[in-house]
Amino acid sequence: MLTEQFKNNYQEILKACDKTLFRHPQRNIAARLQALLPLANQYPEADVYGQGGLVSEFESEVAARLGQQEAIFLPSGTMAQVMALRIWAEDRNNNKVAFHPTSHLQLHEQNAYQALHGLEGILVGQDDKVITLSELETIDTDIAALLIELPMREIGGQLPSWDELKNQSQWASKNNIAFHLDGARLWSCETFYQKSLAEIAGLFDSVYVSFYKDLDGIAGAILAGSKSFIEKARIWSRRCGGNLITQFPDVLAAKAGLDKHLPLIPEYVAKAGRIAEYFNQQDNLSVIPESPPCNLFHLVIPQTDSELMSKIANWSQQSGIALLPLPRTCDKNYSRFEVAIGQNGLSLSDEQWQAAIKSFANFIR
């Protein structure tokens, strides 16, 4: 098991590298705020409790992109999603909601859906695969809502087929089950589906998207849906402490990130596919899924973190390339790393990344 000291040292090694494969370039606080000044100059007045030109305009913009009637900006997806499920549960007088075993609600929120909102989680699907319609049809209790994550982070960014997703949407509608989208990384799904964000989100009754991941915002989320749904969400935002006195820094960064990175997402996705291919060419490395449908994938190396991470740190120092973040999971047989391709991935040519990956694979044998 890696010590905290090693983790901190490794992060410092990555910061000192000349090139990085994953995510976007790191910036200090001053640089991030300075980059927002040109956009801030267009909005002289701050919002007050979510009311004001900047926030209202941004909510309308994102709602339109998602093909939804209205939207609300919230501090976090953790708040947004349990609010959405609570609303659907109350609408149907049923506290049961279904989601995948690897959902963020199940793994990373200390059971907030249960502790704060009295919801009962029904787990559906296999740990390492996307949910299928046949698995939904085996649910043997009435549920108020079904949460589907696109793409599914914990299993390497996998996505169901378009036909499968449509069938699940129709199944939910036929059974009076609210269909909610965990779209934290939805932005990267258009290429795989060859559909617009509005067409994808249009299959759902409510939609959550994030701004600090692929879009490099500071923090914050949008919850979108019908007019009546968002009216209820605004009440729950106040109840949950999400209706902050002002949110202009987060909204400015979200808007800037949307404007800058959304047009580049197809490039990130295409680059991720080629990078994954270069990893798969090495006999001691493998990618999950083998052909990534989005800009995210998991790299699996059949070594434990204790024997592997020192070698990775040494290679990074010698090469000046930050190829991998800290491992996401480790066990006695392998280490698993999450690779999300953003602006950093475009900093070297395909040939340069291919050579770096080959060098890396040979070094860690």
Write up what this structure looks like:
The protein is an alpha/beta fold and 365 residues long. It has 15 helices and 13 strands. Strands 2-8-7-6-5-3-4 form a seven-stranded mixed β-sheet, sandwiched between helices. The protein has a four-stranded antiparallel β-sheet with strand order 9-10-13-12, covered by helices on one side. It has a two-stranded parallel sheet with strand order 1-11. The relative contact order is 0.16. The mean pLDDT is 97.
Index terms:
about 375 residues; alpha/beta; Aspartate Aminotransferase, domain 1; Aspartate Aminotransferase, domain 2; 2 domains; seven-stranded mixed sheet; four-stranded antiparallel sheet; 15 helices; 13 strands; about 45% helix
CATH class of the largest domain: Alpha Beta
Strand elements, count: 13
Structural class: alpha/beta
Please mark out the parts with pLDDT under 50 across 5 or more consecutive residues, or reply none.
Answer: none
Q: How many strands, what sense, and barrel or not for the largest sheet?
A: 7 strands, mixed
Strands of the biggest beta sheet: in what spatial order? 2-8-7-6-5-3-4
- For the record, the count of structural domains works out to 2
CATH H-level name of the largest domain... which superfamily? Type I PLP-dependent aspartate aminotransferase-like (Major domain)
The ordered H/E elements are HEHHEHEHHEHEHEHHEEHHHEEHEEEH
Task: List the total number of helices.
Answer: 15
